[in-house]
Amino acid sequence: MLVKFTKMQGAGNDFVVLDATRAALKLSPRQLQKLGDRRFGVGADQILVVEPAPDDSVDFRYRIFNGASGTEVEHCGNGARCFVRYVRDHGLTDKPVVRVATINNRLELRLQADGRVTVDMNRPRFEPEALPFDTTGLQPRSQGQAQLWPLSLPGGPTVEVALVSMGNPHAVQRVEDVRTAAVAELGPLIEAHPRFPRKVNAGFMQVIDRGQIALRVFERDAGETLACGTGACAAVVAGIRLGWLDATVDVETRGGRLTIEWAGGDAPVLMTGPAVTVFEGEIEL
Ligand SMILES: N[C@@H](CCC[C@H](N)C(=O)O)C(=O)O
Which is a GO BP term held by this UniProt record (predicted)? Predict the structure, then answer.
């Protein structure tokens, strides 16, 4: 089967985007993995599939698969920005504000005059069950409005993490310096920790000042990526609740800058950042 694709990136988090609005596209995990493969396929952290709207409350549905595993996931912040750039550039809509359904969310996306995209990422959740996270026998430490949970890593140290669900699960820890943080060593141990039965995205956050952090994320089923949009939202929300950050924060990732705003409580998290087309092509799957 010959499939047309668009390669995109948002702050260096890269995607293969497929149009399934005109004809249904059902790909096996092996075909998705081939698209994600940087040697035998196109290469991408995630595969995004644009589908027709499931009902009148949204304009499209979009599905997200991790490129390394082919597993479907709930949310992708950088992908959401690329999705809206894609539907506008391919003439699938001319609306300035686009609404989209994901597996467990409804998002609103707005193209800014400077080409960046702002996404209403909905409200974050903090209950351990939302990730889920098994708290059996654990006592969290309270700080500000947040709780820090001790996570004993097999054969490694015990780290303290803040739990945030942005629709997908995140465990965020503060580090002195992201450049020297043990992301490659601790990331896989946190991602696959048995207390997270559906695995987790592991964030490593350096607070630079109350309006700026540096962040690296070891993503579930993807490894460390150059940026993670939901990870940026999770880190900022955790930092605000812990009393370290103000309501608007610039997040420096290895692939670019994202701006995250959160007014607290039930307010939605707003994420603004770039969305860029790299090239288009066709691949035999
Ligand atoms: N890159 C993403 C997150 C993609 C999904 C993640 N790997 C998961 O499994 O939850 C982002 O920009 O948010």
Answer: lysine biosynthetic process via diaminopimelate
